[in-house]
Prior knowledge:
The protein has one helix and twelve strands. It is mostly beta strands. Strands 1, 2, 3, 4, 5, 6, 7, 8, 9, 10, 11 and 12 form a twelve-stranded antiparallel sheet that branches.
Amino acid sequence: MKRWISTFTVLIIIAGIIWSFEYLRDMHPGAYSAKLDQSGMENISMRFKGIRLIGKSQGKKLWVFTADSIDISRDRQNALFSGRINGSILKNEEPAVGISASELLYGIYTRNIRIPGDAVIKVTDGPTLNAKDISWDNANSKLMCSGGINASIAGSTLHGKTMTADLNAKTILITKVKGVIRIPEK
């Protein structure tokens, strides 16, 4: 008799679970047909779509970035931002530098950044820079552009083959420079 009661109880529980799944399927008809597309994701652990990231330190916003897609590698070493990437580096929580690109690779542990293609950097109340192959070396506070750089400010233009900005030494070195400097009339 006791065995019959426990068997009957188990059958009622299983029937209840099956009924629940059937009921949920009717409420969410796409639940059984939805599949995760993992093509091309062999080395990707997570993918975020249409995301906005805010970097903070000691309660203050330092930067804000939006991207169409962010892929985190399986080893959690790198984050690949792709699609339309727009961001701002903030000073006193106000935009100081605007950045836009189509691809950006961020080293999660090193905090290094690499932009392999074209990027536009707009300094608030300052120059607009178009650059290729940008790298930020966080450990040495150096910004390097190895694929050419074009700058424009107040009607003047400048083109250089490479650029290295050392924030610790407060120097900017641009090689093979050509440009037009407009002298304002007084």
